Amino acid sequence: MKNLLLLIFTWWNGATAGTLWTTRRYGTLVGEDEFGNRYYRGRGVDPTLGFERRWVIYAGLAEGSAVPPGWKGWLNHTVDVAPTEETYKPREWQLPHEPNMTGTPHAYRPKGSLLASGERPPATGDYEAWSPR
């Protein structure tokens, strides 16, 4: 019962029942990325938009930063060829895509942050408190 209610009402965790129904009826699967997100295109040109519709169904939380750059370009109509249809090889200096970790336990916490692990270092004497004159 809980899963059924989540499917109907929670758009931020995967897809709702309406999105899945519309995708099954009108969508064509184009590919899947390394995170498990599935990418679809509509059949033909949408008459109201004048171009084809493209969308993603996230594998988990709906987080836009979880879309790799190649798929992001395809979704935004920057490129016409989906990453699954091309033979692009990343350069040796290119790092693999990582989603934004802000707000998660894996977020970057610089030295001295209150949320960083360990002890905060004491003040070193280079700080001078401001006081009004």
TrEMBL record:
GO terms for cellular component: respiratory chain complex I. InterPro entries: NDUFA12 (IPR007763). It comes from the Bacteria. Pfam families: NDUFA12. Residues 93-133 are annotated as: Disordered. One of its GO terms (biological process) is response to oxidative stress. This is NADH dehydrogenase. It comes from Chelatococcus reniformis. The lineage of its organism: Bacteria, Pseudomonadati, Pseudomonadota, Alphaproteobacteria, Hyphomicrobiales.
